[in-house]
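User: Design a sequence. Structure:
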């Protein structure tokens, strides 16, 4: 009973009681520590928008991005390798950017892949362009050395799509893009980093043609399969003039957007990884790699952002019209009215109606007149397509071929029956005419040849040659030799035949007498057998 009346000596806390000063101090100590730990484990998120190429070349690009430029080795896979979904419309995958020792993860890289520059696909990209992702995004356009004659047209289509997409963003996103433009223009233009710390606040001013058409998002153009340059030189007969022209053209165009340029090969990605990481602001904690420009090795070109200028482009080869190409490119990338994207809706067609069922629409072709050539037409007139004989203005942007309309198979075969019958009748008539002509012309041809030979003999005369100072008639000499041989044959032909017959008879008689003598000869008397 005493235990029942026993009361607890521990203090009880009412639900509404507030913690004391000591508990408050503990919470203030642990909460910042836990927040710091959780924020330290949160990886920086970077985005990469890959445009162009094919599903195969996009996979090659992803392999090159994950390959270390120092030793050309991919980092070891940690656990399951992330899948790559890039077969339909907008693809996606991700990569973890590891440090040099492959121990620490520096950032999480999200990659969005789009191969078709159709304006109908722009609504798929728009949700990923927001104020949170735009400062940490890089746009990559893939070009292939297997088809260098299509590069400028492909660049024009992608720039148009990007500009139409940027115009459709909200005001908050556009403000972020304006801030990005200023940041990107000032990046790497500090004189203090190159000369002395006293000029740290001095910025190098922009030159002519630089950042004339900024997008607000850093841009990088990757020309894949640079090992095909040697094949173009051997099989197509290209020379250094063509390769220099392509490089000057690309550098002039990309200078207007503040873009970088790099040539890569599947076996040697070069400085691609370093270029992408430096553009996105991913820095290694163990090793700092510097970008070094290269415009002399034609298969290892690297043009970092904010490095190029018109003067450097002219040095490569004289006679290149930098100003003219730069001005014409600004006209080429103007957005057609039917490609504009508004309020996230799909672009309208040329007649003002949207595309049915969201089907991709081929990129429109700008009408080009000979009086006013565009930047695209100038490039395609110089770098011709050796695989086709039709003009490039009639090419389809979706399939890179000619748009043709085909008839029904049965209707086509019905038309061909009448055509084949007509051809058969023509062949029969032609064969009959040839046969009749051969019968009528054969005797006349023989008569004509005989007459012609007689005329030639009369015109030339007898064939003579000089033998020991005496002119000898060849025809007469041949005739005499033939007569002499004939007379010899007639004179000596019969006696040898008779002689041969007599000698044969004599031999037979001798043999018969020899064998008959053996038969008639009797046995010898002195032989032991007779005894």
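Assistant: Done.
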């Amino acid at each position: 009973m005493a235990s029942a009346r026993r009361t607890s000596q521990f203090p009880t806390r009412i639900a509404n009681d507030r913690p004391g000063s000591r508990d408050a101090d503990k919470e203030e100590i642990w909460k910042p520590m836990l927040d710091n730990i959780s924020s330290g484990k949160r990886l920086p998120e970077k985005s990469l928008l890959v445009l162009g190429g094919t599903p195969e070349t996009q996979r090659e690009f992803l392999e090159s991005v994950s390959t270390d430029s120092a030793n050309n080795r991919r980092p070891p896979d940690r656990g399951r390798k992330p899948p790559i979904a890039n077969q339909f419309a907008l693809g996606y995958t991700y990569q973890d950017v590891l440090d040099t020792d492959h121990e620490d993860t520096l950032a999480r890289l999200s990659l969005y892949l789009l191969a078709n520059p159709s304006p109908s696909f722009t609504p798929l990209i728009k949700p990923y362009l927001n104020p949170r992702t735009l400062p940490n995004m890089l746009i990559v356009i893939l070009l292939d050395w297997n088809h260098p004659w299509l590069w400028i047209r492909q660049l024009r289509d992608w720039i148009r799509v990007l500009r139409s997409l940027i115009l459709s963003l909200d005001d908050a996103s556009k403000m972020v893009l304006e801030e990005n433009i200023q940041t990107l223009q000032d990046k790497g233009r500090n004189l203090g980093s190159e000369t002395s710390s006293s000029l740290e606040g001095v910025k190098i001013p922009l030159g002519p043609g630089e950042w004339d058409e900024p997008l607000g998002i850093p841009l990088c153009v990757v020309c894949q399969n640079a090992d095909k340059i040697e094949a173009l030189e051997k099989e197509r007969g290209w020379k250094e003039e063509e390769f220099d022209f392509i490089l000057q053209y690309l550098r002039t165009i990309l200078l207007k957007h503040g873009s970088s340029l790099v040539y890569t090969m599947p076996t040697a990605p070069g400085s691609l990884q370093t270029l992408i990481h430096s553009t996105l602001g991913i820095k290694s904690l163990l090793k700092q790699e510097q970008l070094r420009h290269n415009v002399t090795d034609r298969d290892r070109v690297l043009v970092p952002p904010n490095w190029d200028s018109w003067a450097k482009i002219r040095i490569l080869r004289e006679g290149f019209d930098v100003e003219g190409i730069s001005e014409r490119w600004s006209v080429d990338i103007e957005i057609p009215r039917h490609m504009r994207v508004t309020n996230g809706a799909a672009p309208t067609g040329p007649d003002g109606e949207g595309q049915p069922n969201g089907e991709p629409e081929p990129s429109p072709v700008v009408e080009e007149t000979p009086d006013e050539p565009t930047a695209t037409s100038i490039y395609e007139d110089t770098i011709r397509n050796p695989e086709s004989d039709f003009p490039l203005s009639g090419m389809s942007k979706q399939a890179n071929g000619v748009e043709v309309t085909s008839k029904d198979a049965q209707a086509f075969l019905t038309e061909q029956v009448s055509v084949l019958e007509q051809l058969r009748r023509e062949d029969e008539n032609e064969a009959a005419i040839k046969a009749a002509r051969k019968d009528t012309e054969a005797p006349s041809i023989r008569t004509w040849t005989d007459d012609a030979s007689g005329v030639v003999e009369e015109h030339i005369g007898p064939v003579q040659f000089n033998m020991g100072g005496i002119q000898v008639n060849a025809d007469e000499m041949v005739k005499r030799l033939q007569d002499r041989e004939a007379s010899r044959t007639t004179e000596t032909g019969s006696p040898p035949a008779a002689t041969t017959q007599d000698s044969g008879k004599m031999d037979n008689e001798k043999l018969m007498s020899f064998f008959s003598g053996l038969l008639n000869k009797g046995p010898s008397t002195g032989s032991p057998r007779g005894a």
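The chain has a mean pLDDT of 76. The first helix runs from residue 2 to 5.
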